[in-house]
Recover the amino acids of this structure.
């Protein structure tokens, strides 16, 4: 093996493993093997804005591994992405049911990326000297626009409810106090990234509307 590209990480919790078990320790074990076998490059898929959101458990684990990778002595690239098309399926499911929800005004922006585009981007990094790069998809959309796109795919009226931001803050306090990490970990991540701009340099040829058209009959 000459080059390692790792996308190891918890997305939806289905067992008793923690973020430190998977996002940190799983990648660290892989890194140790890579060092032992003198691979030419290690590429790690991380998350956008992880430094400013370091209070989140998932990002603490990712940052800890990033530091291990930086100090490993290997040639490396850290690819920080802002979310995938698959993360946007919840909006399509809401539109299918006839009503959607956004936080605040719904004007926070995001440009999620398709998995195929991200894969091509990572392959490109195998021959560059860039150590930390950010990447998103080709379309920058507000959450309102994402939801409207989903409604249009189903040809349904756009019914959008807006959740006040103070409700999010109370929900996070409740989740962190009364639920386990297995429960609140993914929720605190999504509640946080949905209430801030998550825009990265644009890349790729896949568009969210086309993805929604493809997925609407598979829900």
């Amino acid at each position: 093996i000459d080059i390692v590209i790792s996308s190891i990480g918890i997305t939806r919790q289905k067992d008793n493993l923690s973020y430190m078990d998977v996002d940190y320790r799983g990648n660290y074990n892989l890194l140790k093997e890579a060092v032992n076998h003198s691979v030419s490059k290690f590429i790690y898929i991380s998350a956008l804005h992880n430094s400013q959101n370091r209070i989140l458990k998932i990002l603490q684990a990712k940052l800890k591994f990033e530091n291990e990778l930086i100090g490993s002595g290997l040639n490396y690239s850290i690819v920080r992405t802002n979310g995938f098309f698959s993360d946007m399926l919840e909006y399509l499911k809401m539109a299918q049911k006839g009503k959607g929800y956004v936080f605040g005004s719904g004007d926070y922006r995001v440009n999620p990326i398709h998995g195929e585009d991200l894969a091509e981007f990572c392959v490109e990094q195998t021959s560059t000297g860039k150590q930390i790069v950010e990447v998103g998809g080709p379309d920058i959309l507000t959450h309102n626009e994402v939801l409207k796109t989903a409604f249009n795919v189903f040809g349904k009226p756009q019914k959008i409810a807006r959740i006040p931001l103070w409700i999010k803050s109370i929900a996070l306090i409740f989740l962190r106090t009364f639920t386990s990490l297995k429960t609140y970990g993914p929720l605190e991540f999504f509640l946080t990234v949905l209430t801030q701009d998550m825009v990265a340099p644009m890349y790729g040829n896949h568009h969210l509307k086309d993805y929604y058209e493809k997925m609407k009959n598979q829900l």
Q: What stands out?
A: The longest strand covers residues 41-47. Residues 19-36 form the longest helix (18 residues). The chain has a mean pLDDT of 89.
